[in-house]
């Protein structure tokens, strides 16, 4: 009886869906491919929370960090930014969201959001398709997020002022990590070829 219970328990565990972020393992070949395809690669740090919810901002301990953040660009490896401060939005990254600690340096690979659209998922039948995934990343990076008009208005105002970019834990690396070093090596290699 005991064996049957154990067998049933393990069978139950094996049938459960598990949701976790799964990123591609990086090496020099995959980094070169990502570098070719990426819109933007930059180094900087999170400097503040970006949220349309004033009550959330009032109650949040601001000295730690967050997921949707204002991000100060210190240097650019690829792409052109219209501002030294951008906004990173991870609203729909799910388990792949990266928690940015304020004051810590990160290398980010991101895609620019062109527009946030207000839509009612129960009424709309022909929603736009999401953007293709960032090369080397397993998550899809959509261009159209919120279902509420006030959310779309807030994020569109940030697009106009700073630019809004999508990044995730699969495309954000602590500056001193081995993964970030692979991107620095690729950047140096490309600089030598010019």
Structure, explained:
The structure is a single chain. With 194 residues, the chain is of the alpha+beta class. It has one domain (38-193). Helix content is 30%, strand content 22%. The protein is built from five helices and eight strands. It has helices at residues 2-15, 28-37, 54-59, 149-161, 178-193; strands at residues 40-49, 65-66, 69-78, 85-89, 100-101, 105-112, 164-166, 172-174. The strands form two sheets. A five-stranded mixed β-barrel has the order 1-3-4-7-6. Helix 2 (28-37) crosses helix 5 (178-193). The longest helix has 16 residues, at 178-193. Mean pLDDT is 78; it is low at 129-143. Keywords: Signal. This is Tissue inhibitor of metalloproteinase. Residues 1-20 form the signal peptide. It comes from Aureibacter tunicatorum.
Secondary structure elements and pairings:
Blueprint lengths: L1 H14 L12 H10 L2 E10 L4 H6 L5 E2 L2 E10 L6 E5 L10 E2 L3 E8 L36 H13 L2 E3 L5 E3 L3 H16 L1
Parallel strand pairs: 4-7
Antiparallel strand pairs: 1-3, 1-6, 2-5, 3-4, 6-7, 6-8
Keywords: Signal
Organism: Aureibacter tunicatorum
Protein name: Tissue inhibitor of metalloproteinase
Summarize the structure.
This protein has 194 residues and is α+β, with helices and mostly antiparallel strands. It is 30% helix and 22% strand. Keywords: Signal.
């Amino acid at each position: 009886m005991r064996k049957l219970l154990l067998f049933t328990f393990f069978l139950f565990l094996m049938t459960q869906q598990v949701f976790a972020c799964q990123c591609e393992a990086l090496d020099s070949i995959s980094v070169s491919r990502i570098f070719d395809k990426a819109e933007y690669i930059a180094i900087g740090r999170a400097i503040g929370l970006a949220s349309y919810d004033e009550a959330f901002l009032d109650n949040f301990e601001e000295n730690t960090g967050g997921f949707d953040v204002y991000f100060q660009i210190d240097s650019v490896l690829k792409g052109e930014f219209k501002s030294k401060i951008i906004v990173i939005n991870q609203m729909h990254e799910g388990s792949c969201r990266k928690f940015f600690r304020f004051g810590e340096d990160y290398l980010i690979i991101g895609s620019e959001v062109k527009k946030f659209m207000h839509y009612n998922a129960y009424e709309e039948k022909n929603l736009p398709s999401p953007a293709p995934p960032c090369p080397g990343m397993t998550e899809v990076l959509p261009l159209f997020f919120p279902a509420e008009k006030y959310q779309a208005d807030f994020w569109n105002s940030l697009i106009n002022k700073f630019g809004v970019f999508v990044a995730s834990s699969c495309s954000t690396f602590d500056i001193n990590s081995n993964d970030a070093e692979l991107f620095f090596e690729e950047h140096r290699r490309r600089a030598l070829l010019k």
